[in-house]
Design a protein that fits this description.
Elements (H helix, E strand, L loop, with lengths): L2 E7 L8 E8 L4 E6 L5 H9 L4 E8 L3 E4 L8 E2 H6 L6 H10 L3 H6 L7 E2 L8 H14 L4 E5 L9 H13 L4 E5 L11 E6 L2 E6 L1 H5 L4 H26 L4 H24 L17 H9 L7 H25 L9 H8 L1 H13 L10 H7 L4 H7 L4
Parallel strand pairs: 3-9, 3-10, 5-8, 8-9
Antiparallel strand pairs: 1-2, 1-4, 6-7, 10-11
Length: 390
C-alpha cells in the first residue's frame, strides 16, 4: 500500500479547504489529479505531505517521499550541487537523470556545464530550466513516492511530453507517482484519475471509464479542446495574413547569424563564471578602504579643504583651552595672570605722576607722597601690589 488518506483538513478558515477524502494508492500506481482552478488539487498534495493541519482522519505513507512544486525551488550554487542535493555522485545515474530531464543540451551551452554557479533563486536561468533541474533533483533522490504539482505547465510544449515519457513512464515506472495536471494528453497512461471540485473528490476512475461517464471530467476536456481550437484558429489566421519574401527572410537570417556569431565570439573572449566567487581578507582594514571612502565625495577634490578646516579647528580648540588655563587663577589666594599684568602696567604711570607732583612747585601745605597718590585716585592696595608702600 502506497498512500491511504481519510479525513478533513483546515487552514485556519471556518470551512475545511479539502474534505471527505477517502482513497488508496497502491505501490507502483500512477495517479493524476484534475480539476478546475481553486478546486483543492495542490492542497491535496499538501495534506499528503502533512503541511496542512488535519482536523480528522489519518494519512499513511509507506516509504520516502519526493515533492516537486509548481514554482521551482533553486539554491544558489552549482547546478550539480542542486541536483545531487547532498547525495554522493553516481556518474551513470547522474547521466541518466540529465538525459531524462533534457538538461544535457542546456549544460553544453553554459560555459562551465553543470559546474556553472546559479545565482540566488536561479535568476540567471529560465523557468523551464529551473523546473527541469528541480525534477532532476527529485529523480536523483530515488524516493518511493513522488508528488508532482503540475510540473509540465512551466516547460515548453515539446519538452513536456518528453519529460512525461522519460520520467514518469521511464525512470519512475516502478514508483508510486501522484501528479496534478491540466493537460489531457498526459491522462491516458495513468492507472487512476481523481477529479476534484470545491475541495472534494467527485470522481475516481480510470481514463476509459471516466470518458464515458459524461460528468465533471468531460467539462474539463471540453474546455481544454475549446482552448486548443482557439489557439489553432489564431495560428491559422497568422499564417494566412503573413506573407514574407523568401529572399528578405534569407537576408534576415544571415544578419541574425552574423549577430549571433559576433556575440558568441565576444562571449568566448569574456568567458567566465556567471557568478564570481567573493573575496575574503583577514586582518586590519587597509588604508585603501578609507581612501576609497574619502574619494566618494567629488573624487577627493574636497580633501585639502577638509584637512585645512580640521587643522584650523584643532588650533582654535587648543588655543581656547590654553587661554582659559593661563587666564584663570589656580586658587582663590592667587591673583590671575591677567590682573597681575594689568597692575604691572600701572608702574610707569605711577612713577610719572609722582615725579610731576614732587616737581610741580605749587605753593601750599606740605603733603606727603602717599597722600599725593591718594589724591590722584590710587588706593593703598594698588600701592602695595606695585611695591611703593613705605
Amino acid at each position: 500500500m502506497g498512500i491511504k488518506l481519510v479525513g478533513k483538513w483546515d487552514l485556519s478558515s471556518e470551512s475545511p479547504t479539502v474534505r471527505d477524502l477517502n482513497f488508496r494508492v497502491l505501490h507502483g500506481m500512477r495517479v493524476a489529479v484534475c480539476g478546475t482552478v481553486d478546486s483543492g488539487k495542490s492542497s491535496l498534495l499538501s495534506c499528503i505531505l502533512g503541511e496542512v493541519p488535519k482536523i480528522d482522519g489519518k494519512v499513511k505513507l509507506c516509504g520516502m517521499t519526493a515533492y516537486v512544486a509548481q514554482s521551482p525551488w533553486i539554491q544558489s550554487g552549482k547546478i550539480q550541487d542542486n541536483i545531487l542535493f547532498g547525495e554522493e555522485l553516481d556518474s551513470d545515474k547522474y547521466d541518466i537523470v540529465l538525459e531524462a530531464c533534457s538538461l544535457k543540451k542546456d549544460l553544453e551551452i553554459l560555459p562551465f556545464g553543470d559546474q556553472t554557479v546559479i545565482r540566488e533563486r536561479g535568476i540567471n536561468l529560465s523557468g523551464g530550466q529551473k523546473q527541469r533541474i528541480q525534477i532532476a533533483r527529485a529523480l536523483y533522490q530515488d524516493a518511493d513516492i513522488y508528488l508532482f504539482d503540475d510540473p509540465f505547465s512551466v516547460v515548453d510544449t515539446h519538452t513536456g511530453p518528453h519529460l512525461f515519457k522519460e520520467c514518469l513512464l521511464g525512470i519512475l515506472v516502478s514508483k508510486t507517482v501522484k501528479y496534478v495536471t491540466h493537460q489531457i494528453e498526459f491522462l491516458p497512461s495513468v492507472d487512476l484519475i481523481l477529479v476534484m471540485k470545491e475541495g472534494k473528490i467527485t470522481q475516481r476512475r480510470k481514463y476509459n471509464d471516466i470518458i464515458t461517464s459524461g460528468s465533471d471530467f468531460m467539462e474539463l476536456v471540453g474546455a481544454h479542446k475549446d482552448a486548443l481550437s482557439v489557439l489553432d484558429d489564431m495560428e491559422l489566421a497568422n499564417d494566412n495574413s503573413t506573407h514574407i519574401n523568401k529572399d528578405s527572410l534569407h537576408e534576415a537570417n544571415e544578419e541574425a547569424k552574423n549577430v549571433e556569431n559576433s556575440k558568441f565570439e565576444e562571449i568566448e573572449i569574456q568567458k567566465g563564471q556567471l557568478v564570481q566567487e567573493e573575496e575574503r581578507e583577514k586582518g586590519k582594514v587597509g588604508f585603501w578602504a578609507y581612501w576609497k571612502y574619502i574619494k566618494t565625495a567629488y573624487k577627493g577634490i574636497l580633501v585639502p579643504l577638509i584637512l585645512i578646516a580640521q587643522i584650523f579647528f584643532q588650533v582654535l580648540q587648543i588655543g581656547s583651552n590654553y587661554w582659559i588655563a593661563w587666564a584663570a587663577p589656580v586658587s582663590k589666594d592667587m591673583e590671575s595672570p591677567v590682573r597681575i599684568a594689568a597692575q604691572n602696567l600701572q608702574i610707569p604711570f605711577l612713577i610719572n605722576n609722582i615725579h610731576l607732583i614732587t616737581n610741580s612747585g605749587l605753593d601750599g601745605p606740605e603733603i606727603s607722597p602717599r597722600d599725593q597718590l591718594n589724591q590722584i585716585g590710587l588706593l593703598d592696595g594698588s600701592m602695595d601690589h606695585c611695591g611703593l608702600a613705605p
